[in-house]
Amino acid sequence: MSLQRRSAVPMLPAFVVSLLLALVSAGAVVAPATAAGLTAYDVTSPQERRRVDAVPTPVLRWYDCGGGFRCSTAELPLDYDDPHGPQVEVALRQLPARHPERRIGTLFVNPGGPGDSGTDFVQDAPRFLSSSLLDRFDLVGFDPRGVGASDAVQCFATPADQAPVLNTLATVPFPYGAAVQKAYLRAERALGRGCSSTGAPLSVSMSTAEVARDLDVLRRAVGDRRLSYLGFSYGTYIGQVYANLFPDRVRALALDGVIDPVGWAGTTATAKLPIEARIHAAEGASKALRTLLVRCDKAGADACSFADGNPVGNFEVVAKRLKKHPIVVTDPDTDERERFGYPDLVSSVLSALYYPNGPELVTSLMAQLLETTEPAAGRALAQRRRSVDQVARVLQQIDQRTGGRPPRFGFPYDNGYEAPAAVACTDSLNPAHLATYPKAGSAADRRARYFGRLWTWSLGSCAGDAFSGRDEDAYRGPFTRRPFEPLLVVGSYWDPATNYVGAQHAAALSPGSRLLTSDSWGHTSYGTSACVTDAVDRYLLKTALPAAGRVCVGDDQPFVDG
User: Fold this and answer.
1) How many helices (H) and strands (E) does the chain have?
2) Alpha-carbon distance 51 to 271, whole Å?
3) CA 165 to CA 498: how far, in whole Å?
4) Quick one: what percent of the chain has pLDDT higher than 70?
5) What percent of the chain is predicted at pLDDT more than 90?
6) Is the peptide bond before 114 cis (omega within 30 degrees of 0)?
7) Computed over its alpha carbons, how large is the radius of gyration of the chain?
8) pLDDT band for position 444 (50/70/90)?
């Protein structure tokens, strides 16, 4: 491959040429001399070149699918070791650049999950991406293999076979109590086994490495020499895997809400720990909750509705009450009566923390619950009913912000639990026995109050005696290869899902990358301040990194006027 990185390359002394040749043979390419000296970058391995470059470039037959969008599909290898064998269909949606005469190329976007739809995500792009990106890039979202409008994984033969699993996993956020725990173990085991058998071969060909290979073929299909990519949450892991499989094919990878790649993949030393214990998601959520409760206390009752008394202590009071005596709330839209217990409290609080105004949602909910769960002798029946109604309204606000909906039972088939499991279980090393998860959840709760069990059980189906599938071409590192252009890694102090330490570790691993820190609330940081948004936009447009050590402050800060 050419050693040129820019169009104008000065003549180099003979000893430098010798150095270049040595680096090429060692698996690195060197860019032209700069004021700082020579900057090397790694190249795609011969094995990956054989796999991916052997795939014929798909012809994307775009068609108008409404609202200014264009849609297409691509047939890609189920197994890149057999590029001309069975294929999987991947769905794409494109929003063409508003100023095609100034078009840079294609910006691929992914919302995370795993299991979230990129084609749905790009439909919302005009609401959350800046005009500068909309003007200069064709935006493309794709549903990763097994997800959404792409060929979708199905781990049960029929919805009737699937229903017993959903009847447990979709109705209780995590098990609390012996009876529910037993049902959860049974459901997680059935999910893992279904995805190892009925869901195969697609379910065992859904690792992030396969998605990254798909992405490289799609990059070629849209005519881009190198990849421009904006990934959020789990989407940051797609970006990190891509950067390490195809380092010389990176133009700009902006990663926001970053997963620790080593934690996600696991090592022989950490394989006995569930995935979430390795990426410290629960610790991030617990830190965010405690911080907002302390700030609520300092702000006082005029600024925070939950400030009377001790917010940290009163949160525990409500939690204990709901453990003993769940309440019943009525959905304001459907009039359905729903049980609301301790697991529902933790899940609702975590959902609220995903959003920049999460602290206000959490404290509003807790203020109503503190009153609602007070022993009946302490207040009038009419007052209790009003409090329960207020709880229902706040929960409705949280659902509206998160887009929360229960999975569909019956038709059409809903693989909302199966797609994440297939990806995570093929990606990572996991504990051998599902029976260890109750103890692991309790230990996690001691480390990360309230959220440990919830995050631990989120991928219980990956235990070795539940999920036995294997993707022999999954990628588990190293994550230290130097890309052609450095990565931009964005992490928030108060992210409840992707702990800030994950961003720190990812940035430290990737040579030349830059960590942009955000003092903001919610999950991911783009759009929480002009500081973050402008830095990400400038990087994607010009491959220009923000200053080292830069810290942005989110526009929404809890319990502060103005």
Assistant:
1) 21, 14
2) 28
3) 27
4) 88
5) 83
6) yes
7) 24
8) very high
For the record, the structure tokens of 545 come out as 């990194």
Nearest Cα residue to 312 out of 284, 293, 291, 289: 293
Q: At what angle do helices 178-196 and 437-447 cross, to 10 degrees?
A: 110
**What are 191-239's pLDDT values in tens digits?**
999 999 999 999 999 999 999 999 999 999 999 999 999 999 999 999 9
pLDDT at position 544: 98
User: Identity (one letter) of the amino acid at 90?
Assistant: V
CA–CA distance from 67 to each of 179, 409, 443 (Å)? Answer: 49, 30, 49
pLDDT of residue 335: 76
Burial (CB < 10 A; 0-12, 13-18, 19+), residue 528, is: buried
Which token pair is 54? 């052997």
Closest CA to 305 of 355, 353, 258, 370: 370
Q: Tell me the residue type at 221.
A: A
Question: Strands, DSSP E only, in 316-395?
Answer: 327-330, 337-340
What is the Cα–Cα distance from 288 to 414, expressed in whole angstroms?
32
Distance, C-alpha 34 to centroid of its chain: 36
Identity (one letter) of the amino acid at 57?
T
DSSP state of 271: T
Residue 193, Cα to own-chain centre: how many angstroms? 24
Higher pLDDT, 460 or 389: 460
- The chain-wide mean pLDDT, for the chain, equals 90
Instruction: Tell the burial category of 378 from Cβ atoms under 10 Å away from its Cβ (0-12, 13-18, 19+).
Output: exposed
